[in-house]
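Ticket #4471: structure export looks truncated?
Reporter: QA, pipeline team
Priority: medium

Steps to reproduce: submit the single chain below to the structure queue and open the exported record.
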Amino acid sequence: MRKDKATAIKMRKQAKSYNEINRLLNVPKSTLSCWFRGFEIPEKVKNKLLTQAQRKWAQNITNYNKRRALLIEKEKHKTQQTVAEDIGKLTDRELLLVGSTLYWAEGNKKDRWSIRFCNSDPAIIKIIMKFFRKICNVNENKFRAQIQIHPNISEENTKVYWSKITKIPINQFTKTQTALSKSSRFRRPSNTLPHGTLHIKVSDVNLVNRLKGWILGISKPV
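Actual output as written to the record:
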């Protein structure tokens, strides 16, 4: 018997796969198939080979899913960036419509004396602050901010974070709320809002009426 054949059979008995034997002995798989024909593999070895095959199959599936996920993520990013260019820079009228609609959706419409806007998305907060400053011409000293956070979140870090987002000085932040809202209690994990929720308030009766008027204009039937 050829020495490499004897070695190959010994390796097969040790539950080595065709690929492993081929790589180590440089013997074609077709030759290995002939050598192993009629060779009875012990049950223990069969189980080991099956386990190895299952493990390799699972790893191949995992690698495939990872590659597919990366391609999907890349395509998603490309699509979003391409479509984002369709928007371009907002005109003052567009900012008026966007800001008014945001306030209509997220702002407090019941207060007669002040406006209140609440959200946890920094991108939305940046837009509404631009709207307040550029369209509403709110005096910087009139802004008041308040954060609502989960008890395990740092109040100091959160204030610094929202101050950078809004450009509102920390000394214009009012007392922080740490109690969970009734709508969030027992429903939302404590780590879903790492920076809490920001409340923006401006005491200005005239601005209240202007906002309600803009919302009225948007809500009119076409």
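Status: closed, not a bug. The export was complete when the record was re-opened. Leaving a note from the reviewer for reference: The chain has a mean pLDDT of 86.
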